[in-house]
Amino acid sequence: MVKKIMLVDDDPGVIYTVKHGIEGLDSDYQITTVNSGRRCLELLEKEELPDLLLLDIMMPEMSGWEVYKKIREKLSDKELPIVFLTARTDRIAKDAGGFLAEDYIEKPFKVPELKERIDKILKK
Amino acid sequence: MKKRLNVSLSLKLTLIVVIVSAVSISSVTTYYIINQEEFFQDAHFPKAASLIQALNATIGSAENLVNYSTLENKTWEFISSSDEKIRPEILNVAINLPDSNDSLKIFYSTNEGDIGQESTYKYYHDLSYNSPSKNDSYFIMEHDNGNNHYLTYISPINLTGKVNGTVELDGTYEITISMNNAYATFDNNIRMVIFISILSLFFMIFSFLFLLHKITVKPIILFRDKAKIIGKGNLDTRVEIKRRDELGELANAFNQMAKDLKESRDKIQDYNQILENLLQQKDEFIGQLGHDLKNPLQPLVGLLPMLIEKEKDPNTKETLQVMNKNVEYMRDLIFDTLELAKLRSSNIEFDKVDLNLRKEAEAVIESQKLLFKEHNIIVENKIDNEIFVYADKLRLSEVLKNLVTNSVKYTPKDGGKITIDAKQIKDEVTVSISDNGIGMDEEQLKKVFDEFYKADKFSSDYHSTGLGLSICKRIIDKHGGKIWVESEGLGKGSTFYFTLKTGKFKNNEK
Q1: Which residues in chain B touch residue A13, judged by CB atoms under 8 angstroms apart?
Q2: CA B19 to CA B21: how far, in whole Å?
Q3: Å from A26 to nearest chain B CA?
Q4: CA-based, 20 to 30 A from B47: which of A96, B68, B297, B390?
Q5: Residue B342: which of A13, A89, A100 has the nearest Cβ?
Q6: Contact yes or no for A88 and B338 at CB 8 A
């Protein structure tokens, strides 16, 4: 069964790595990529919810943290699990306290490590 | 303490004022009393002398003297004509003639029975004195019997006349005046003087103190209070003393000082603001740099392991493996350098909470299990489940992770064993991470926490940045703990220790 994963990141390198890496390792995963927080929120409103959201923190215009807060106003963790893609400097940022309880993976990550994390959330 | 100082200053001034006033008032009073006494005597003696002269005149002649009855009348005339103020005080008037064997003939006495009597004068029974010689005009004696004071004036008589032929009579007049009233007046005067002295003493003390307080103590208290306010940082405070004396100058200097202080403080604050902004910019720069350096690495770190797995040609595979190792090393270098820079900045804040140490260690072991598997190393977590520490969750995992991976690096593949344990003594928890690895000699033990120090510089197998332990030291330092390492020597393994504050036990933890 195909699982849909939405990746929100503004970096083409990251997008390429996740899309080709994950889809290459497991054809059951289908990655949709979005390059801004605003676009992500629009898609979540209009289209079918993905099974998992991979969310970058440091993005221009709207940070991953803001996107996260907007999503959590409407959707619970069970309805849409979120994994943050973060650099260590981000999670030490002062306003980041809240998402520390959430799942995160540190950039740059190895694709198998990311896949293992995704497997844990989607297949258990 | 400051209050005591204030009281002590007033006390000192009071003491000085009391001493000065008491000395001056009492010397003035003493001088006055002594003078009064002399003045009092001086005022009475001439009166007595003039009385004697008057009496001498009334007697007039030897005939009169012999004829006592005439003399009595004359004496009465003398008494009644004498000074009204003295008259009531005249106790008696007597004449002493040589032929009467030192007995006195009393012409006037307040005790009427004595008049005309010829006897040893009763007031003089205990008195001996030399009769005055002819040449003395008069002679004065002051004497008393118990409570009564007397002044006796003795004046010689020398009369020549015809009484049964020509005679020359030599003798003395004696007038006794009561001094009781005079002394009473004198005592009253002295009492009054002393009373006035004491009154003026108090008046002097209070007025001196009032003036001293107003002139010195009050401005000093004002200065003290203003200095306290300035000490608290309120540099707009000014001392409002407008006087043309030293205190006025002091106030001007004080105000100028506050003004100068304020100016330099403002300058420092401005500089500080600039520095803070720069620091902020630096932190932002580090964050941005971290982000910008890490993102380009993502495809390399992410996809190289997959390429290596898929690659069939051994030469290409080896090349890819070398590339991968170097990419990972670069990633670690970026991580650790940025982390150390962050930890150096003063405004870093830790989010300290109570943590179950065993669970935190377990999570770290779990996250590194691939590494342990790769090295075939057994990791044992012996931490008691009841031990809690008060620390920043992420930083604690970082320390544990760095120490454990450090141990892995210096422990031989296959057969290596790492043990994590902790002991709680009161409010301090000591965590230990021991391995059976290559150990350390004394020089290495000293330098192991230095930045960029690597225990084995020549081994390229250990791709470490040399920053992990420095990061651990900074984190533990900032938690107020200690970190150290012990080793019995090369080949005998090492044990890293660090301490943290004990956290509160929480039973409801998942």
Answers
A1: 295-296, 298-299
A2: 6
A3: 12
A4: B68
A5: A89
A6: yes
Residue B210 has pLDDT above 60, yes or no: yes
Give the tens place of pLDDT for each residue, B372-399.
Answer: 888 889 999 999 999 999 998 888 988 9
- Amino acid identity of residue A115, one-letter, is K
Q: What percentage of chain A has pLDDT greater than the value 70?
A: 86
Q: Residues for chain B: how many in total? A: 510
The sign one gets for the Cα dihedral B325, B326, B332, B335 is negative
**pLDDT score, position B99:** 60
Q: Does B295 contact A110 at a Cβ distance shorter than 8 Å?
A: no
| Residue A118 at interface with chain B, using a CB cutoff of 8 Å | no
* Amino acid found at B434: S
From the candidates B284, B285, B289, B306, which should be mutated to test the interface with A, based on the most A CB atoms within 10 A? Answer: B306
Q: At B458, phi and psi to the nearest 5? A: -90, -10
**pLDDT tens figures, B134-166:** 445 566 677 777 778 777 777 777 777 666 677
Those residues with Cβ within 8 angstroms of residue B107's Cβ, 6 or more apart along the chain or in another chain: B68, B71, B72, B75, B93, B94, B95, B115, B116
Nearest to B295 among A11, A18, A114 (CB): A11
Per-residue pLDDT band at B264 (split at 50, 70, 90): very high
Residue contact A92–B394, C-beta within 8 A: yes
Interface of B to A at Cβ within 8 Å reads 286-287, 290-291, 294-303, 305-306, 331, 335, 338-339, 342, 348-349, 351, 393-394
Which H or E run includes B126? Answer: none
- Residue of higher predicted confidence among B142 and B178: B178
Contact B297, B334 (CB under 8 A): yes
Written as six digits, the tokens of B241 are 């003393």
In the 3-class helix/strand/coil scheme, how is chain A assigned residue by residue? CCEEEEEECCCHHHHHHHHHHHHHHCCCEEEEEECCHHHHHHHHHHCCCCCEEEEECCCCCCCHHHHHHHHHHHCCCCCCCEEEEECHHHHCCHHHHHHHHCEEEECCCCHHHHHHHHHHHHHC
Q: Backbone phi, then psi, for B251, in 5-degree steps?
A: -60, -45
Q: Which amino acid is at B391?
A: A
Those of residues 34-73 in A touching chain B at CB distance below 8 A are 58
For the entire predicted model, the pTM comes to 0.48
Q: Evaluate whether B381 touches B365 at the Cβ level (below 8 Å).
A: yes
The residue among B173 and B391 whose pLDDT is bigger is B391
| C-alpha–C-alpha distance, residues B384 and B379, integer Å | 16
Residues from chain A contacting residue B297 (CB–CB below 8 Å): 108
pLDDT at B41: 65
Q: Enumerate the residues of chain B whose CB falls inside 8 A of the CB of residue A107.
A: 294-295, 298
Q: What is the pLDDT of residue B458?
A: 46
- Alpha-carbon span B59 to B194, nearest angstrom: 46
More confident residue, B10 or B429: B429
3-state secondary structure B458-474: CCCCCCCCCCHHHHHHH
- Predicted local distance difference test score (pLDDT) of residue B127: 39
Q: Is A14's CB within 8 Å of B295's CB? A: yes
pLDDT at position B382, please?
Answer: 93
